[in-house]
Amino acid sequence: MIDKKHLEYITSIVGDENIKTDKAHLIAFCYDATRSRFEPDAVVFPRHEQDVSDILKYCNEHKIVIVPRGAGSGFTGGALPSNGGIILSLERHMNKILEIDMQNMVGVVQPGVINMQFQKTVEEVGLFYPPDPASEEYSTLGGNVSENAGGMRAAKYGITKDYVMALRAVLPNGDIIVAGKKTIKDVAGYNVAGILIASEGTLAVITEITLKLIPKPKFKKTYMGVFPSVNSAMTAVFKSLASGANPVAMEFLDSLVIKALKQKFPQVSLPENAGGILIGDVDASSLAEIEDQLNILKESFKENGSIDFIVAQDEEEGKKLWFARRNASPATMVFGTKKLNEDISVPRSKLPEALDEIYKIGDKYGFQVPCFGHAGDGNIHVNVMVKDKTNEKEMADGHKAIEEIFQLVVDMGGTLSGEHGIGISKAPFMNIAFTEAEMNLFRNIKKSFDPNNILNPFKMGL
Amino acid sequence: MIDKKHLEYITSIVGDENIKTDKAHLIAFCYDATRSRFEPDAVVFPRHEQDVSDILKYCNEHKIVIVPRGAGSGFTGGALPSNGGIILSLERHMNKILEIDMQNMVGVVQPGVINMQFQKTVEEVGLFYPPDPASEEYSTLGGNVSENAGGMRAAKYGITKDYVMALRAVLPNGDIIVAGKKTIKDVAGYNVAGILIASEGTLAVITEITLKLIPKPKFKKTYMGVFPSVNSAMTAVFKSLASGANPVAMEFLDSLVIKALKQKFPQVSLPENAGGILIGDVDASSLAEIEDQLNILKESFKENGSIDFIVAQDEEEGKKLWFARRNASPATMVFGTKKLNEDISVPRSKLPEALDEIYKIGDKYGFQVPCFGHAGDGNIHVNVMVKDKTNEKEMADGHKAIEEIFQLVVDMGGTLSGEHGIGISKAPFMNIAFTEAEMNLFRNIKKSFDPNNILNPFKMGL
Question: Which PANTHER family has this protein been placed in (chains A, B) (predicted)?
């Protein structure tokens, strides 16, 4: 518990209306998408950067833990106060789009801006912000930067880090810093923005984000490739991309997901004999280029055994094709009462082997493991389905299977997390992915920003 | 001077043939493109990563300074032993291309590989590595990563950091670390690769680099836009790019450079009444797209007052158009005996104003300031021409003019260095660009990697 005098001091900074300690608020800010719950000691809503600075300076002096929070939609507990302390909520006041600079194709936002709100705003003036995490409707750009969010369009357009040009941030000692510039080239000083991205709120509180924008592509079409097996679909992924295809997205559904979709959504029309499906969009500045792209995909899919290639003739048809992918996650629940889902990522050419081995691990423990996700960038959502979550043995086996999958992925040159981060959920697996030397370096970096360990402490296994 | 016993120990690691202390070697490794000279105490050629680790571990224990060096082609003294110590030369042994992974479109190299050698190797198999610093014929990829090298193609394709997927590196304590993966998405742990890029050899010695490749564009054409004034050319830069043009490069020559070229290379045919020139390539996967791109450029240039738009009909004609840009740097020497050249970078929309103000600063001190460079990404090479370099007053004025230019650029949201880094040359100007809080953070980061300050110490104003 935080001493009353500390809360009084923080109240003197932000005002009565911007600090809450009542039960309703503590509960409202105790959760995220992990379903773990940790109540904070207080929730504070800074009005602006200076508030953030004043709060951090005081908390640093008194060694009070601060956990920055956007929308609380993370999958690994990054925004949970798992070690107590104060939630610093950026979504109430620090949620403005500050500038859309059309001449330099740059947007400047506060951290609490919702991803989709920003996408829509820039598209209205003919610009485009590609990173589209599945949480785009509710997650904040501050959270996106802190977790280095990905999304479906990463196959062509990259991820959040590829769009961050500059950050303003407050260090734990209250110092306000600027990292990066509104310029394409900038090599003066250390790339501090580079290390703040994906640092999960453990190094500094981001207060302003400068994002690169690109011209909005004029044309878009949706395609679907149908394959007899997971293996042939996975082979088509890396072969088609290596042969020059450059789709916006290349999403994957395996045979279990297809089965689940048919069961849960009987109205959805999915090819009868599909063992694996690839779906995505192509975009371009001309229709001719769209046709080129579709042809490359079609030919390459065929060479790798596809049994059908469907192109949506309009947006409506496109939406129908996308229905299956958009509903893959809820559909998998037909296989169990609890889903242990991970977002592993491997070099694309390893996808066929990785999927084969993941199913084998599932078989060994008796789990169905439906898989889907962003095959175009090697990032797959793997779901170990526990039939009875009250069965301790089954749950324990599920976690063992997950650990084996992590080991497999790391052995293949892949990563524990393509998009979701480490937070608290994946912290126990950090030793699979990193050596003691690497963990020591992480701890030293953490200490160089936050010597008193007040900012989101003990996350990421640190 | 380093104690003889230390040199003997290092000899026991690398062998007699890989450590040099004779005068010829000390001179051969004392320079870079700054023309400053600092002789090292010894030059060591590690054979492999383990050598690097053993050397660093020993030198860290005995607080011996190590300066990593690629080709020594840097413009700011990053590879100079300005505080003595041992040059660790990566170019003799650690210069192999280890893998071109066509399936994942990734290259893996040792740090001593020459940029152009890598470009040529990947192009032979239909792939493309875009970063093309002017030093591409001789600079190493390790140096490119350490300085975050740019180049002409940055306008469309970005800079070195946009292609680094993973690094292997040795910390000053000898620990070998891996940062990043051969995957498009990876958000596990801090983005250590992100901060090693552009760290100018002050944090770790890079021993292996994994680089993203893209399919080689099939078609390319060269264009030249002729403008009546610098201001109209600079306006056309940001207006054309904001209107959807996406050229590989958009290089700029101002009227002084054009004048110098005519004087120095009478055979070069340059438009009579040109006050500013933009030159570059467009590339695409189809000829139709090339035409589209050229049309957008031509129209947009016209709207901004261009008086001519030339398209090279073949590669030979293209080379002729490029001749002027390629020889801009030597041509400027017609204006003086000493060139104080800086590579400032501003948001593109600030280019017209920035150039106006830079010329005014030149006028104030009586200097001609020919400018050219990578206007498409806002990065301009500014050359303050000193007529008599033996005149102390004139040299002092030149440095004052440079300092004013830096202040101007920073006030406009620009950076001290778009490509060349800080090293020792720009270290005195760091206080213009960074606050004490930011410099403190840099020092803390440096300390977290290198507590004994043995690795390229005191560079970047640290």
Answer: GLYCOLATE OXIDASE SUBUNIT GLCD
pLDDT, tens digit, 9 for 90 and up, residues B231-284: 999 999 999 999 889 999 999 999 999 999 999 999 888 888 899 999 999 999
In degrees, rounded to 5, the angle at the alpha carbon of residue B458 between the alpha carbons of residues B455 and B462 is 110
Pairwise CB contact (< 8 Å): A188 & B417: yes
C-alpha span between B88 and B95 (Å, rounded):
13
Mind listing the pLDDT tens digit for each residue in A297-353?
999 999 999 999 999 999 999 999 999 999 999 999 999 999 999 999 999 999 999
> Over the stretch A50-79, which tens digit does the pLDDT of each residue have?
999 999 999 999 999 999 999 999 999 999
Q: What is the C-alpha separation between B340 and B361, in angstroms, rounded?
A: 14
- Token readout for A424 is 């608290």
Residue that the structure tokens 């004025």 belong to: B397
ipTM associated with this complex? 0.95
DSSP code at position B263: H
How many Å apart are CA A220 and CA A237, to the nearest integer? 20
Q: Please report the sign of the dihedral spanned by the C-alpha atoms of residue B253, residue B391, residue B358, residue A212.
A: positive
Between CA B255 and CA A292 the distance in angstroms is: 43
Cα separation, B127 vs A110, in Å, equals: 39
Question: Which amino acid would we find at residue A129?
Answer: Y
B418 near A CB under 8 A: yes
3-state helix, strand, coil in chain B (%, to 5): 40, 20, 40
Nearest-10 crossing angle of helices B351-365, B392-411: 160
Q: Is A163 on the interface with B (CB under 8 A)?
A: no
Test A379 with B158 for CB contact under 8 angstroms: no
Nearest CA in chain B to A185: B418
* Contact status, residue B195 vs residue B145, Cβ threshold 8 Å: no
Q: Which backbone phi and psi does A281 adopt, to 5 degrees?
A: -115, 155
Q: Cα(first)–Cα(last) distance of chain A, in Å?
A: 23
Containing H/E element for B215? strand B214-215
A59 touches A80 (CB < 8 A): no
| Measured CA distances, B360 to A77, B343, B364, B370, B372 (Å) | 55, 18, 6, 12, 16
The yes-or-no verdict on residue A140 having pLDDT over 90 is yes
Can you name the residues that pair with B460 across neighbouring β-strands? none
Kindly report the pTM of this predicted structure.
Answer: 0.96
Three-state DSSP state, B170: strand
